[in-house]
Amino acid sequence: MLAYSPAANSGSTIETVPNETLAAIFDGLPPTVLALTARVSRRFNAISERLLYASINIRDGLLEEGSQVPWRTQRCCESIAVRPHLPEKIRDFHIRWASTNNPPHGYFQFSHTLSLLATVLPTLTSLESLELSLGQANMLPATTVGVHPIESIIVGCQFPKLKTCTLNADWTKGVQPYSGILPQFLATLPELRHLKLLDQNGPIQLAPTCIPLLTSFRGNMHAAASLLPQRPVDSLALVGGDTDVTRENLPRIALTSVPLRHLDLSGMSVRPALLRILAATLPYVHTVRIRLTLRHTLHYALSGIRMLSGLAAVLACFQQLVVLDLSPTLMTGIPNSTAQDERALCNEWSRACPALERVIFPSQTEWTSVNGVWGPAVEG
């Protein structure tokens, strides 16, 4: 641990080390050590402070800590507000509020912290990554709120360098929906590549020229159908229910300007019938991650993991599928699979889908094909 003394500060070798070199050394230190290093001297403080604030990751676990307010977020905003030289140095700003239980109505006190965030966020003009996962902040009836809490924070913000954005709050029927503020905000993000909108349940009205570099999206099917057409999205992760997929919105996710290669369906329970429809719509997908609904068994004559035998007919529609990830699928009440069963399924599926090279089963076991021979993946 670095220690400070007047003698060392007045004429030691450390004083001749350039700030750039010190910054490179300090950059490898964990945040707890950086915080201690900042106390050594004013010079160390200036360097450590900039590194500490360059990437901010805060998680407020509310009920588990017995707190009614997200105090870590509050303290962070207050610290930024009194350091006007720091906002331009902040590249990552990730805020997550979580609670393990449903508290009584009005238990959490969010208004002051939301106000602080709304004051601080517009000053972070050099942001490259933003996450606002605000948990139960939107759990008041829409008639009493008037605006989505995330929109109350992002309104008027402009982040010309932002590449990654995640916006989310817990949702239930009757809470405040997003308004026109959200698309207005997205329209100011010319460099955006990765977007997650987990509680936006409808389409987003956005001009085709906006977010022209978008390559990945995670969210509801209705939002995806409005954002993907004519944009270079090659990775899609859907959340919600499979009933959100309709004849009207399904064809639109295939209208991307580049082939959609990666499809993640772990955020929704997927019936085999829906998977077949998606395969017909997106035949050039390379990787698929699925949480299957096993109450709609694929092969009634078989038991255990072998009930997935009928998946071969669906996989045949994915002409270029290389990776099949079934790890999110729950096998509750179903006997554990054996290596023999899994190998047999790999052989069966690869006959239907010759491009298949890697399979991850619900058991979390991974199998790979080497020269047509399937075996457990070798770690490392």
From TrEMBL:
Membrane-spanning intervals of the chain: none
Gene3D superfamilies documented for this protein: Ribonuclease Inhibitor
Pfam families: F-box-like
InterPro entries associated with the record: F-box-like_dom_sf, F-box_dom, LRR_dom_sf
All copies of domain F-box, residue ranges: 11-56
Recorded coiled-coil stretches: none
Highest taxon above the source species: Eukaryota
Name by which UniProt lists this protein: F-box domain-containing protein
Organism, as annotated: Cylindrobasidium torrendii FP15055 ss-10
Organism placement in taxonomy: Eukaryota, Fungi, Dikarya, Basidiomycota, Agaricomycotina
